[in-house]
Input
Amino acid sequence: MKKDVTPPKKPLIFYYIIVLVVLLLINSMLVPYISKVSIKEVNYNDFLDMLESGAVQEVQINENTIAFSAMDEDGLIGIYTTGLMNDSSLVDRLRSANVTFGQVVPEEASPVLSFLLGWLLPLVVFIGIGQLMMRKLTNKLGGGAGAMSFGKSNAKVYVAAQTGKTFADVAGEDEAKAALKEIVDFLHDPDKYKEIGAKLPKGALLVGPPGTGKTLLAQAVAGEAKVPFFSISGSEFVEMFVGMGASRVRDLFKQAQEKAPCIVFIDEIDAIGKKRDNGMSSNDEREQTLNQLLTEMDGFDGSKGVVILAATNRPESLDQALLRPGRFDRRVPVELPDVVGREAILRVHAKDVKMAPDINYHAIALATSGTSGAELANIINEAALMAVKENRKQVEQRDLEEAIETVLAGYQRKGAVISDQEKKIISYHEIGHALVAARQKSSAPVHKITIIPRTSGALGYTMQVDEDEHYLMTREELFNKITTLTAGRAAEELVFGLVTSGASNDIEKATQLARTMVTRLGMCEAFDMTALEVVNNAYLGGDTSLACSAETAARVDTEVMNIIREAHKRAADILKADELLLHRLAAFLLEKETITGEEFTAIMEQNPPRIEA
Ligand code: ADP
Ligand code: MG
Ligand code: ZN
Output
């Protein structure tokens, strides 16, 4: 959900009404004209007859026509025209018929009308278009601000009712909620804090991976706080004109101080708050904006009750000056939810959806380890869509199960044509993973094995779900994980004596894990507890950069290779010892395409391990 409050703007119909009024105006001036000209046409002969009979009363000779009024048999006066003939005796006839007549010098229809049509109408249209364009432009530049007020902050003032979000809508982020509640509480009742002498933090920074509910939390604060809430996104400060950002910041804080006590929320603050020292890509406009922000944050009196909230998923890229006490001196982590949090988030989102009464949310939460609130919301929605697709009135457990896979691995590729030989290889590959996982201690139980391809590119996968959530991983568990990852390839080698590209993803993951063990977790004898790599942005993918000499890096590579080689060999050994079972399971999978955890466990229980791994 994005910000759902837009500033009230004049709807398009406003312009239609203006045009309509102008048209009506013109019309009302034209109508008398037109009605006067609503006239009968007669031929010249009839005109002469009428003239002789004395019915004609008044005659007007125009350039090409003669217009005249005449009384008909009923005594009603009508207006007639007839073509002008080259009739030299006309004047005599008219005189003898005793009618008033005259010639009209051709001239423009009406000075007022022609002025209206010639000048005013284009002017009105022109101004109208100009206004529209200006509005569009300013909308792009800065929202609801008036036409010429470039540089005005376009922070929207939310009030409680507008976001419609409260802390009840945010699940699982209890620590973050507690920290923010305190701020809301202070703004409600500052005296309570003043009595003791406690100072409120000037600013709080919400940090966490994308989709964990930072923006949602800020909206909830807006809903809970009974004070004005200004919300603006960092990118909105940086616009096309130099100096605009700084002036926006100034304006925002001016507004905020006028409305104090109030809350100012700057979303995605990294857009303006990046470190300034980067010579290569220095950006004057951004630096100016940041400097202005720093100045304003120092300038205002915190006791007045202006609290700045900001959100980012790149805290490490923020300028140190922003983070020092007195500015954003409080940091509120909004982390990926744990299993309890995930269950709570699922329940919050399930409230708006018709769910079967016996849904096991805990099972879904367990199977979605590592997902964010946004993904969980998406899972509920995908499940609802699936229920609709099958014409059911409520969402069932299997919809949720399928939705997890949809969100994590993409949709089923029903149309994919895969040859029988390839299907066989994929089956062995997946059973390799599953079998090795099952034969190792301290390895998560297999939840599902499938060879139905997905739009993400996966040709099949083995899902493992832990019975409860782990916060620590032992060296053995990590090593077992790598072993499981190498087992797909090991099965292909054992059965077909060939290697395929199907293991590319496994290889990537295994290498990454082994590397982490060596460089960051101190799980390699040779390096003891040395950090050889640093994480760059923990919340966005977590890519790393080396922090060691080239020689050490070369040794790191050797150690990583050793771990993987060892794991690969072990996987091969396990499979070799259980080759019969491998064939049986692979044939079963090939036939059924999907095996559930229960089916798999049942088969494994009939075949106790021969070697103790
Ligand atoms: P971000 O941290 O990237 O700002 P958002 O606040 O925009 O994430 O979250 C996106 C959506 O994900 C929310 O609108 C909400 O539907 C869902 N969501 C994320 N976290 C939670 C949560 N803790 N509880 C309930 N819903 C959540
Ligand atoms: Mg956000
Ligand atoms: Zn694999």
Summary: Confidence is low (pLDDT under 50) at residues 1-8, 141-151.
